[in-house]
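Researcher: Re-running this chain for the archive, since the previous output was lost when a drive failed. Same request as before.
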Amino acid sequence: MRKRTYGHLTGSPCSNDCLVEDAIALHMAAEAPSSSRHADCPHASVHNLVGTAMIQKKIKSLDLLSISRLLPNCNYDKQKFAAITIRIHYPACTVLLFTSGKMVLTGCRSYMQCVLAAHEVVRLLRHGVPGVFLRLRNVTIQNIVGNVDLKLENASMDLERFHLDHNIFSTYQKNMFPGLIFRPDNSPVVLLVFLSGKIVITGGKSTCDVNGGWELLWPIVRQYIKYHPP
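Model: Regenerated structure tokens:
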């Protein structure tokens, strides 16, 4: 299997995931149906988002041990891991905070939630460590995980034939992993296709990558739906 080349959807009609003053226009653009969408294309929903952010500070490094004693819902064990784990209730998010000020955020379902979670961590730090200059910088999406359920009735995915036809861009070893991993070239996403018709979409860096990438790959996927006689 060849290494996949990432292909960002530059011509997508969707707006990029960014903070803008006109939030209503951003929402309308995101909800607008794509002109290239196939009529029978199942909807892809975002399940998880991985983002990173940086806390600008005037001190050399953060004292994670002191922070762990001040903040609620956090866990820190220097012997096991170099970061403190902070759990935020709203928006639901788990944050890894390192001494350098770098944060890794998981569990959010949108870029806005990721930004809110990062601001909440900075707010808690300002409250717990008064007098220290802290500023949030560079909230960036690293990976978005989506999922699709084809809801197959009297049918299943023919993964053997799928792998046979696309062996250069796919991996399928059912004794090790029950799903087929499809890495098409110049695609913004990677698909994990399961026999039941459930599909995991990963590798995208924006919601447009997830939705647009799935729409481009749907004509290939639907060729391998195998119907069974009732």
